[in-house]
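Why do we care about 3D structure at all? Because function follows from shape, and shape follows, mostly, from sequence. That is the central idea of this module. The next example makes it concrete: a single protein chain, its amino acid sequence, and then its structure expressed as tokens.
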Amino acid sequence: MKIDFANTADLWLESRCYQSPSALHGWLSGYLASGARLTPQQWMAEALDYLELDEDPSDNLSATLRHFYDVVLATISAEEMAYEPLLPKDEDADVIEQVECLAEWSKGFLDGFGASEQSGNKLSKDVLEVLNDLDAFSQAQIEDDKDPDNEAMYLELAEHARVAALTVFYSMNRSTSGSGTTLH
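And the structure:
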């Protein structure tokens, strides 16, 4: 149950979506991590607004967006912590594009988190710290495209973003059943 970046990017291109798949994935991840949920109709409206489409979505795009919500919610809330930001693989993009997509994902996460209006003043220190990290990641770029450490830096930032999303999700979506169980 994954979303393939390359196929999704092709569909976005065909559909003339303004935002990247990484940005929308980040937006939805941030929204869900905040503890908020959307009905299918609300999700479609938010997704189409965020993608800034000039025309009505194709049936294929609509189906993909519905699947997108289900996959992101399932993976970010799964116990095995298999969640990953939607970023291009090495065979699909060079490290410069990968870092750009990570920056777009990070900005999207912050946009979605803010759009949920769930946070109020109740953010823990850990959540504030990772949100600040994601704010810094949203401005990431490769300064020296010949630097041999670029790929390692990107992989480290992508893993940090993954853990940041899970940290926010588990902090903001704690069970209120009174079981006393804390998710780590």
